């Protein structure tokens, strides 16, 4: 009973704190870079999520999914290459 009175508020506050930190980090990133860079970072996050799901949970990627993932990675690398040059 005593443990539940501590954990219930923690379960409610922790996701809110995480969301606040994510929003604050996006704002800080936008102050230093462009909106396009933030968009590319979001796309990269999706690529990491899909790749982790394929590796950890053994989700099957169809050939079209794999080609899409590969073309997205190539496009992100090209964007970074041209941005640095």
Automatic annotation (TrEMBL):
InterPro entries: Sugar_P_trans_dom (IPR004853), TPT_transporter (IPR050186). Residues 12-80 form the Sugar phosphate transporter domain. It comes from Lomentospora prolificans. Homooligomer. Pfam families: TPT. This is Sugar phosphate transporter domain-containing protein. Keywords: Membrane, Transmembrane, Transmembrane helix. The chain crosses the membrane at residues 6-29, 36-57, 63-82.
